[in-house]
Specification:
This protein is of the alpha+beta class. It contains 14 helices and 21 strands. Strands 1, 14, 15, 16, 17 and 18 form a six-stranded mixed beta sheet that branches. A four-stranded mixed beta sheet has the order 2-11-10-9, with no helix packed on it. The chain has a four-stranded antiparallel beta sheet with strand order 5-6-8-7, with helices on one face. The longest helix is centred in the C-terminal third of the chain and has 18 residues.
Length: about 525
C-alpha cells in the first residue's frame, strides 16, 4: 500500500500542554469507540491503493486469509487451503454458510468475481500486480484476452472451493490474498456507481458504513459476520480534527484511539497522565526515492549510480529522523519482514566516484545536464537530497510537491525525473518490497525499470521450495537494486498512538491498520 513520502500524513506536531488529569471515560459493551483515521479516497477494495483507504476497506470487506497480531497467517473466509501441482495450484475451501452483511449467500463464484475486478482492463486496480501471478491474468489485464474464463480462477459453489492456477510456483499467494485489495464484494458492487455509506451498503467484513459526514464515518457491526458480531456495536471514525491536536482531543476524552506524531510520543512517554495510554505501533514501511529510468538522463545507469553515490543517504536519514538510527534504511525491505537480509544494500557514499561516473556519462561537473524535477508529497529529506546533489555534482534539481489525490495519477501517467513514496507492506514478504515495486511487469514500478536479471531473481525466489533458496534469490535481487539504483531507500516507518484504557485489541501488526472486529471494551 502506498502513500506520499510524508512522515506526518495524518497529523502535525502539537507540543501542547494537557490538563493535569485525563478524564475517565466510562465505556460499556454497548458504547461506541471513537477512532482517528485518515480519510479514505475510496471504499472499493479493488480501487484502493493507498494505506488510508485500505485501513477502512479492510473493515468492510473480508479476505480469505488474514494476519493476526503476531503476523501469523490465519484462515478468514477460507477455512483452509491446499497447495498442489508443485506449488502452481492453490485450492481454497470456504467456510460453510457464509453470507454478506444483508444475509445473502457468499459463494466461491463471488470470490472469483471479486478478484477479477483487480485486473479489469477498463478499471484496473492500482495493485493489479498482486494478481499477475495467476495464469492468464496479465493477458486479460492488457487486453490480449477478453475472456475471463482464460484466467486461472475457478469457483465451485457446491464444493465451496476456489481453485487458483499460477504462472509459477508461488505458495506465498495465500499470504498475498490477505491484502485488503482481495476483499470479497457482493454481486453488482461498483456497477451502479461509487461505494457509498448508507442503508444499502453490503459488505463481507466486520462492519458496514451506516453514515458519513465531512468529518467522519459511522461503522455498524455486521450481524452476519463469519466470526460473530463484533463486540463493539458502533465505531465512529474521525477523519477531521479542525486543526486541533489529536493529543488534546484524546486528553479531553473525545477520542479512544489516536495515531500521534513521534515528537508527541517523546514527551508523552514521560507524562504521568498520558504515558500509560501510549502505544508503539510497528510499521512495515519504507520511504524511498525513485528515478524515471525510461527517459534521459536517468535511463543511463551511470547517472543513477552517480546520484546514489553523491548523496549521503544515511546521514540525511539520521539527521531527519525523530526516532534515531533504527529508522535509517539499509535496503528496500524493512525490519520485521521474515527472511529479511541484514546486508547493507544502500549505494556507497563516494562523492569523487560519483563525479567520475557523471563525467563518463557525458556530464562533467554537471555541464549539459538536462533540467530535472523532483516531485514528492513533501518530505523531511527532500531539501537535503537536493542540496547534496547540487554541492557534489553541480546539478540543480527543481523541486515540486503535489497533493495526495493527484500524486499517483501523475506518477502513472507522467512521472517526474525523481519522485518519492512510502510503501507499507500488504503482506509480510520480501517480494512486496522488491518484485511488486520493481518488477518489469509491475503496475507499481513507477520508474519503469527493466532488468531481466532482477526479474529472473524474483521468479527464482517465487519458485523456490525451500526458504534458503528463496532467500538467496531475493539477495540477488537486492544486489541488483544496489548496483542499478532504480530506487534508493532512505528511512523505515515507525508510529505511535494513544489508546483508551480498557480498549482491548488495539494493537497493530505493522500492516498499517487496526482489525476493528477484534476490538472490545474491558468489563
Amino acid at each position: 500500500m502506498r502513500r506520499p513520502s510524508v512522515l506526518a500524513v495524518l497529523i502535525g506536531l502539537s507540543l501542547i500542554a494537557v490538563s493535569q488529569s485525563v478524564p475517565v471515560v466510562t465505556r460499556g459493551a454497548d458504547r461506541p469507540a471513537r477512532i482517528l483515521v485518515a480519510a479514505p479516497t475510496t471504499l472499493d477494495p479493488a480501487a484502493q491503493g493507498d494505506a488510508s483507504s485500505a485501513a477502512i476497506t479492510a473493515q468492510l470487506f473480508e479476505t480469505l486469509t488474514t494476519f493476526d497480531a503476531t503476523l501469523t497467517l490465519r484462515p478468514a473466509l477460507a477455512q483452509g487451503w491446499t497447495v498442489e501441482a508443485a506449488g502452481k495450484r492453490i485450492v481454497f475451501t470456504l467456510r460453510p454458510d457464509l453470507t454478506f452483511s444483508d444475509g445473502s449467500p457468499l459463494r466461491a463464484s463471488d470470490v472469483v468475481r471479486s478478484w477479477l475486478r483487480l485486473i479489469d482492463p477498463a478499471h484496473p486496480s492500482p495493485l493489479a500486480s498482486f494478481a499477475l501471478a495467476i495464469t492468464g491474468a496479465s493477458a486479460y489485464l492488457h487486453g490480449a484476452s477478453t475472456d475471463a474464463a482464460t484466467v486461472g480462477l475457478h469457483g465451485d459453489d457446491g464444493a465451496r472451493t476456489v481453485t487458483v492456477d499460477l504462472v509459477r510456483p508461488a505458495a506465498e499467494f495465500v499470504e498475498v490474498v490477505a491484502s485488503p485489495s482481495f476483499g470479497i464484494v457482493p454481486p453488482g458492487a461498483g456497477q451502479a456507481g461509487p461505494f457509498s455509506p448508507g442503508s444499502g451498503f453490503v459488505g463481507s467484513g466486520g462492519y458496514v458504513p451506516s453514515a458519513a459526514t465531512a468529518t467522519g464515518m459511522t461503522l455498524t457491526a455486521n450481524d452476519h459476520y463469519w466470526a460473530g458480531r463484533p463486540a463493539i456495536a458502533e465505531i465512529d471514525l474521525v477523519t477531521e480534527t479542525a486543526g486541533t491536536s489529536p493529543v488534546e482531543i484524546f486528553a479531553a476524552g473525545d477520542l479512544d484511539y489516536a495515531p500521534i506524531d513521534s515528537v508527541d510520543a517523546s514527551w508523552i512517554a514521560y507524562d504521568p497522565t498520558l504515558g500509560p495510554a501510549l502505544r508503539s505501533i510497528p510499521s512495515l514501511a519504507t520511504d524511498y526515492y525513485g528515478f524515471d529510468t525510461s527517459t534521459p538522463p536517468f535511463d543511463d545507469a551511470r547517472v543513477r549510480q552517480a546520484f546514489g553515490m553523491a548523496v549521503d543517504w544515511r546521514r540525511i536519514a539520521l539527521l531527519g529522523s525523530i526516532d534515531g538510527a533504527a529508522d535509517v534504511a539499509t535496503s528496500m525491505v524493512p525490519p520485521g519482514i521474515p527472511g529479511r537480509s541484514t546486508t547493507d544494500a544502500l549505494p556507497t557514499h563516494d562523492a569523487a566516484a560519483a563525479r567520475a561516473l557523471l563525467a563518463a556519462a557525458g556530464y562533467p561537473g554537471g555541464k549539459g545536464f538536462p533540467a530535472v524535477t523532483m516531485l514528492t508529497g513533501g518530505g523531511p529529506f527532500d531539501a537535503a537530497v537536493i542540496a547534496e546533489v547540487k554541492r557534489e555534482l553541480g546539478i540543480t534539481v527543481t523541486y515540486e510537491t503535489e497533493g495526495f489525490d493527484t500524486y499517483f495519477t501523475r506518477l502513472a501517467q507522467d512521472p517526474p525525473a525523481i519522485w518519492s513514496l512510502s510503501w507499507i507492506a500488504d503482506y509480510p514478504g520480501r517480494n512486496d518490497f522488491l518484485g511488486v515495486l520493481l518488477g518489469s511487469d509491475s503496475t507499481n514500478d513507477y520508474g519503469h525499470g527493466t532488468s531481466a536479471a532482477f526479474d529472473q531473481a524474483i521468479a527464482d525466489a517465487g519458485a523456490a521450495t525451500d526458504p534458503a533458496t528463496a532467500s538467496a534469490a531475493y539477495d540477488r535481487a537486492e544486489a541488483i537494486v544496489k548496483s542499478d539504483v532504480p530506487v534508493v531507500p532512505i528511512a523505515y516507518g515507525s508510529g505511535w498512538a494513544l489508546a483508551r484504557d480498557g480498549l482491548l485489541g488495539a494493537g497493530q501488526n505493522g500492516l498499517g491498520f487496526l482489525r476493528m472486529a477484534g476490538l472490545a471494551w474491558a468489563p
